[in-house]
């Protein structure tokens, strides 16, 4: 299968759209959680919050990938 310009542009569009949705979703989750997520992770070295943030990121990514893939 040959990579055409249309296929490449569609791939870039879907990738950009997925990244944008991921960022918006993660910021929304950050705002909805009590406290300051990044302060807990960086300054206080809270591993539980870091694991939660990672799990949220993986979950959002999986949902976006499934939606984009079809």
Briefly say what this structure is.
The chain has a domain at 34-70. Helix content is 81%, strand content 0%.
How would you portray this structure in words?
This protein is an all-alpha fold and 70 residues long. It has a domain at 34-70. It is built from 3 helices and no strands. Helix 1 (5-32) runs antiparallel to helix 3.
Instruction: Write down the Rg.
Output: 16 Å
Structural class per helix/strand content?
A: mainly alpha
For the sheet with most strands, the description reads: none
**Which oligomeric form is depicted?**
single chain
Strand content: under 5%
Distance between the termini: 20 Å
What would the average pLDDT be, to the nearest integer?
91
Q: Which H/E pattern describes the elements?
A: HHH
Separate helix tally:
3
Quantity of strands, as a count:
0
Structural shape: elongated
Low-confidence stretches: none
Q: Helix proportion of residues, in percent? A: over 70%
Question: Features of this protein?
Answer:
single chain; 3 helices; mainly alpha; 70 residues
Outline the secondary-structure elements:
Elements: H1 5-32, H2 37-42, H3 47-69
């Amino acid at each position: 299968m040959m990579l055409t310009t249309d296929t490449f542009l569609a791939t870039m569009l879907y990738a950009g759209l997925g990244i944008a949705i991921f960022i918006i979703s993660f910021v929304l989750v950050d705002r909805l959680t009590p406290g300051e997520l990044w302060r807990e992770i960086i300054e206080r070295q809270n591993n539980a919050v870091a694991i939660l943030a990672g799990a949220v990121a993986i979950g959002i990514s999986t949902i976006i990938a499934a939606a984009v893939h079809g």
